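MODEL INPUT / OUTPUT PAIR
PAIR INDEX: 1
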Amino acid sequence: MNTSDTTNTCANCGKEGSDVTNSCNKCKMVMYCNAACKKKHRNKHKKACERRVTELHDEKLFKQPPPQFEDCPICFLRLPLLHTGRTYMNCCGKLICTGCIFAVQSRATKKEHDICPFCRTPPPGTDEEYIKQYKKRVDLNDALAITCLGNYYSLGQFGLPQNYDKALELFHRAAELGSAEAYFGIAHAFMNGRGVELDEKKGIHYYELAAMGGDTYARTNLGCSEWRAGNMDRALKHWMIAVKDGDFGTLKNIKLLYSEGHATKDDYAKALRSYRAYLDEIKSDQRDEAVADDDFYKYYESV
């Protein structure tokens, strides 16, 4: 007998053999000898199947995702979570930290002051030129550029008409290219009925896709949703992941859970350590100088 052969047992009729290879499509826990046996066993297997599918989903949902964005390509430090800590350069498609932008601008001549720190391209002079640069990046399938353009259509910014349908089209395209931020945009549309019928269930689904892709704001919103539903353990799980990625708001939420008895002292201490570790990862003298420069920082708060 060849011991390397895989022997399975049909969950319906009990037949054994290496030819029992038809597994449950959802949970993959049980095997069948054919489709007929699978159909006959469906009602008996349904509850166990749904329970296992939920377990598999939660295993994936509550896994700490990789950072949503790569490190700054100039200083090679982790990019800050806050939008004011990083800027997308639509000339070259790079996300640059404001510390590196500040360092270049503080040394530049007046003529060179606003050039891209990475590719040295001057900034566009008009909204029309600005959007034209974005559309060039969109043609290159730049997921972040596609997402940004979707946001501009959603808000009606930079001379574009407010168009929720166009925004959703762009968000779906960017999501297919791996943009977690685009999934957040789709979720936001369903949660607020923008371009689609309001549907909280679909909104949560897309928030989950965004969170699993590394979008911290989606993760925070999921925690808030679970908190409102009274699911404190699940809220805590989401917020512990979010605080590790730098969301200070969730640190305050975890402190509140602790004060109300829904989280332990160890949970809160771990959250504090996670947030401090994040701050250490993003800290640099250049970034501190940028924050300290009121004129520079106020400008980038408005970008």
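PAIR INDEX: 2
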Amino acid sequence: MNGRDLLRRDYKEYLDFPSLPYGLATVPLGLKIWLEKFDEGQEVEGVLGDLKSYMKERQLKLLGVLTSYTHIKKKTGEVGKHRRELFVISRDPRLNEKGGMFDLLEEDETLELGEWKEAKNFGGVNEGEREGESEKWRVWQQGNTRATRKQVAPILRGIVDKATREKDKEGKGASL
């Protein structure tokens, strides 16, 4: 499957906040497999291109990708443990600030987000930022593999609600 098909296969969109439409896609493979579909050295940009294209098509400000897969042990080929990753990309400056969405996700105890284990295989890259585009992204390994979209969606909603409410209040206060 190509990137667009992977994303739309199991996708939910949230329109709770008109100024910040967002979506969550569950992808049934590890990010490493998706990255390996692209030429060496272009893996990260390739996946980012898939995500940005999908965001543009759906007119999203935020996209979360939940991967779910079974790890295969490299040395023995044996089936390992079930794993999950979380990839989040935001194009909303209200979410991208220090202490914003990315920091709040890492602080969340339910998901148990940690360093993405595959970063070393892709130039050590697990996050990025493009200030001119107000774009920020990050990938985590999810420690709590039982936490599905049913847990992730309300956490994200709470963070988006907090960010939009606080920033909107700041904007209104400045104009008084």
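PAIR 2 NOTE: The chain has one domain: 3-175.
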